[in-house]
Amino acid sequence: MASIPRKSSPGSNGGSQPAIPDERKRKRMQSNRESARRSRMKKQKQVEDLTGELSRLQMANNQLLQSIGAKEQAFVQVDNMNNVLRAQAIELADRLRSLNSVLQIVEEVSGLAMDIPEIPDPLLKPWEFSRPALPVADMFLC
């Protein structure tokens, strides 16, 4: 009968064979340690990169929030200015109506033909009023 070769135990006489599996095991453990170290370093670099990106994004977010706040403040100012101008336009239209009625009375009493302009309604047709001398964008530069 054929005998099956057996691995020799560390205490047996075949001294060179046990060293090969131990050497492989040692190399594999060393390789695993190195791989784990590289993996930890890669993960640490990813965390550092993400932390840096987070800082940049937070700074950009703060700048955007400040810009939005400034734009909101400018909008409120322009809106307030528009409300004042609307009120002034209504007041001036009322004055013009009063003056036109005086002109009509003078025309009726004197018999002279007067050129009485028509008064547009400032709230119904705001586009009929003359435009400001400066474009809207230039108003913010002043």
TrEMBL record:
It is found in: Nucleus. Residues 22-68 form the BZIP domain. One of its GO terms (molecular function) is DNA-binding transcription factor activity. PROSITE patterns: BZIP (PS50217), BZIP_BASIC (PS00036). SMART domains: BRLZ (SM00338). The keyword GTP-binding does not apply. InterPro entries: bZIP, bZIP_plant_GBF1, bZIP_sf. It comes from the Eukaryota. Its main location: nucleus. One of its GO terms (cellular component) is nucleus. The keyword Repeat does not apply. Residues 1-49 are annotated as: Disordered. Keywords: DNA-binding, Nucleus, Transcription, Transcription regulation. This is BZIP transcription factor 53-like. It comes from Cucurbita maxima.
